[in-house]
Amino acid sequence: MKMDYIKNLLKHHLTFHRQGKxxxxxxxxxxxxxxxxxxxxxxxxxxxxxxxxxxNLRVPVVRETLGLSRWESVFFPENRxxxxxxxxxxxxxxxxxxRFKRETPFTEFWHLKTDRVLFKILFAGEDDIDWFRTQxxxxxxxxxxxxxxxxxxxxxxxxxESFLVPPYCRQFSGAQLSRAKEIIGxxxxxxxxxxxxxxxxxxxxxxxxxxxxxxxxxxxxxEPEVAIPYLAKALNLHQPDLMSKRLLKAxxxxxxxxxxxxxxxxxxxxxxxxxxRLVERWRxxxxxxxxxxxxxxxxxxxxxxxxxxxxxPIEKYLLPRAAGTxxxx
Length: 329
Description:
There is one protein chain. The chain contains 14 helices and 7 strands. By secondary structure, the protein is an alpha/beta fold.
């Protein structure tokens, strides 16, 4: 315990943040959607201070510092000022509690001095992501991954029932809430996980603005030659080649990723031919009936991003290919 304290003390005293001119970035997504991987791609650009899951109320320091303990309380209008001040403290370099994680000195993403913050938020903000853009004058990335592989890899759904109480539930119709309660009352964990995905993604997809970058995990894997230049331009990132090189490494969050999946990303000889296979591997793990049930839940919540029989999002959710960008072989 004493050793952990010393390590954290060194991490905090060997990192200094002073906000620069470039806007900070907020990455929003659902757990198990590739956020760690995306954050690491973005962190190759400049001197980023990475703030990982600052609204995860399962972490004691988050509950104590934010002063909230119930998932639904993050959505209460009266707590907005509290949330803003809490996040601003990271920007101002006032996150002094040693329990907040920092990069380990002299590792890949550590910088002695940082000048831009990268927030990875998985447990807040779905009711109004644009609030974060306007309050912090920040760039927004909304990362979406197909609900079936996400649902297959999620063992816990800590916020599921909190989406069905005010004020968040007011975003849904009576029929949608009735269907949600029916699914929760059943014993099918897979369908509950798909429901959780829908409740988290339906509102942001409905509210998405042109100022955001809405990117799918699938396109990021299958078409990095499209996604990376787009991200670089939209987010003021000046060395996209470093993101391309980082694609060859598995993320630090690979505990549930198979060695084969990591190899498909890292093997330069196979990666173009195998990218589609990587985003379609979940098909081996579900029946046609399960896929149909998942798509029925998506339709109930008005989500058209994914359809039965395809792993990629429909065309209108794909980032546009820049003129002159070659088609994938």
